[in-house]
């Protein structure tokens, strides 16, 4: 009897240990994921059966991804999105994860929040992922370098989707196919397109932006990508490299004490703030992180490098219009320009055309007090030259015709 009693005691300890392990496993989900899913299913109302059907049929290796999406989906999606839509999104996101080395290496927390989501802001929920995978995966299939993949997507997207920048777009918060159908988008629509293209090939991406610059009127949105655990900014019309762009000086002067002037980065799961949507300020379901300090730091670092190069210099910004009397919006043209001081070439480049943001100028620095000659060839093939004394920072309007 003592033997059996001892045996039962041992088995009891083992059983309790196993039960404890099982309980720990089930309750270790971040932020009470099980409770969030139950609440989400209740919120889904008549659409609950769609979500439950997806949970019942999802592939085991994709189950955690689906649970994440359902737990953090906005109410509008819980009540409207079909199980088929969610499962297809999962299928192609996990295909990217299994294909590209940079995505295979991602922690689940990054894959779930910055690759797997089917939307970034409040845009229409398009079924874009399979199409975008088939468009962009072949372009990056021969590289193992995520930086090279980012560069390839960045430089190929405009030709692939045939969308250009214009404030004449139907609305600011366009979905990918809304932009592609009309061929036009402003900064938000372009950012949605680029983030979806990155995510389609497993590159972690999110949308960043500010509801209001501190340096001038207006808002702006752009993209961020994660490389080796660190976020970098880029945009639909890329500069030479990551963390380079015309708007850095404006972003770097954001006010960290004012939410109206913060720099925000979108998040699918709840974060410290919500992303202010200037086209519909009542929407608070788009989550966001406050990344203002990072942009201030980036700008300060860039300033340190420039101070040595630009000591005793002033800034010259150039914008080229088709003709006199044109508007700032769609009447700008890209024309090669050279700026000389005497016989010395100070800087050169192309002016921004109507596809670029209206705050994007051809910019250079010249010695304070210098007289510069700005040279370009006009529409008639005639060499034009404009002279300007540079006693202060200036923005000059040039005319092509």
From TrEMBL:
Transmembrane segments: none
Pfam families referenced in this protein's UniProt entry, alphabetically: Transglut_core
InterPro entries: Papain-like_cys_pep_sf, Transglutaminase-like
PROSITE patterns linked: PROKAR_LIPOPROTEIN
Domain (Transglutaminase-like): residue spans on this chain: 140-232
Keyword annotations: Plasmid
Name assigned to this protein: Transglutaminase-like domain-containing protein
């Amino acid at each position: 009897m003592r033997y059996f009693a001892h045996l039962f005691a041992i088995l009891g300890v083992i059983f309790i240990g196993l039960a404890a392990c099982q309980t720990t496993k089930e309750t270790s989900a971040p932020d009470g994921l099980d409770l969030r899913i139950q609440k989400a299913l209740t919120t889904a109302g008549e659409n609950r059966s769609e979500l439950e059907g997806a949970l019942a049929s999802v592939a085991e290796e994709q189950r955690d991804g689906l649970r994440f999406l359902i737990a953090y989906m906005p109410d509008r999606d819980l009540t409207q999105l079909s199980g088929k839509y969610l499962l297809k999104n999962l299928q192609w996101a996990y295909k990217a994860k299994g294909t590209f080395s940079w995505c295979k290496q991602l922690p689940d927390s990054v894959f779930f929040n910055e690759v797997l989501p089917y939307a970034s802001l409040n845009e229409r929920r398009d079924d874009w992922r399979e199409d975008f995978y088939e468009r962009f995966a072949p372009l990056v299939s021969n590289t193992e370098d995520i930086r090279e993949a980012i560069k390839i997507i960045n430089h190929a997207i405009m030709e692939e989707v045939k969308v250009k920048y214009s404030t004449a777009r139907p609305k600011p918060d366009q979905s990918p196919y809304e932009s592609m159908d009309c061929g036009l988008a402003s900064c938000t629509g372009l950012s949605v397109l680029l983030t979806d293209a990155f995510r389609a090939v497993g590159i972690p991406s999110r949308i960043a932006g500010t509801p209001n610059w501190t340096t001038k009127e207006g808002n702006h949105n752009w993209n961020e990508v994660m490389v080796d655990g660190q976020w970098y900014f880029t945009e639909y019309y890329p500069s030479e490299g990551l963390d380079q762009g015309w708007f850095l000086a404006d972003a770097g002067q954001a006010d960290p004490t004012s939410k109206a002037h913060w720099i925000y980065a979108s998040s699918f799961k709840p974060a410290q703030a919500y992303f202010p949507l200037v086209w519909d300020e009542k929407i608070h379901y788009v989550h966001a992180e406050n990344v203002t300090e990072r942009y201030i730091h980036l700008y300060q670092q860039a300033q340190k490098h420039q101070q040595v190069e630009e000591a005793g210099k002033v800034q010259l910004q150039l914008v080229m219009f088709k003709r006199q009397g044109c508007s700032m919006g769609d009447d700008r043209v890209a024309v090669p320009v050279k700026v000389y001081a005497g016989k010395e070439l100070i800087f050169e480049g192309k002016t921004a055309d109507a596809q670029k943001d209206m705050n994007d100028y051809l910019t250079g620095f010249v010695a304070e007090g210098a007289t510069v000659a700005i040279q370009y060839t006009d529409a008639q093939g005639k060499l034009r030259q404009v002279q300007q004394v540079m006693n202060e920072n200036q923005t000059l309007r040039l005319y092509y015709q």
